[in-house]
Each structure stands twice: as structure tokens, then as C-alpha cells.
Specification:
alpha+beta; four-stranded mixed β-sheet; about 70 residues; globular
Length: about 70
């Protein structure tokens, strides 16, 4: 429910800041661990390891936005 609320909160933002953290297992298989999001109104951290199966709606939204990457 909280991830849905986050998606709803940022869906109207034209630009979203994003930073990600990965853990590398070996040389060829990085695993997304953390997604940090920022808008003028909101800062959020998403535990991608815990919410892995729930991430597609968030990723779809991010693909439709202008992103500022760190």
C-alpha cells in the first residue's frame, strides 16, 4: 500500500530525481537494492530487495518521466 501511495504522490511530478544502489554478485549480475527518489515535495527510499515483485508499476512510471540521475 505504501508503494502505491508513493507512485500516486509522484505521478503528477514532471521531473523526478533518482539514485540507485546495487550489490554486485560476481562480475555480471548486479542486483538492485535501493531506489532513492526526490521531487520538490517528497524524498523517498524504496527497498528494492523487499519490494522486488511490486516494482514494475514504479519502474513504468519512472520510464514515462524526465529523470535527474545521480
Amino acid at each position: 500500500a505504501k508503494l502505491r501511495d508513493l507512485i500516486s504522490s509522484i505521478s503528477s511530478e514532471p521531473v523526478i530525481g533518482i539514485d540507485t544502489e546495487f550489490k554486485v554478485y560476481g562480475f555480471f549480475s548486479p542486483k538492485l537494492c535501493l531506489i532513492q527518489l526526490a521531487t520538490p515535495k517528497l524524498l523517498a527510499v524504496v527497498d528494492a530487495l523487499v519490494l522486488d515483485a511490486c516494482l514494475p508499476p514504479l519502474l513504468d512510471l519512472l520510464l514515462s518521466k524526465e529523470l535527474v540521475l545521480h
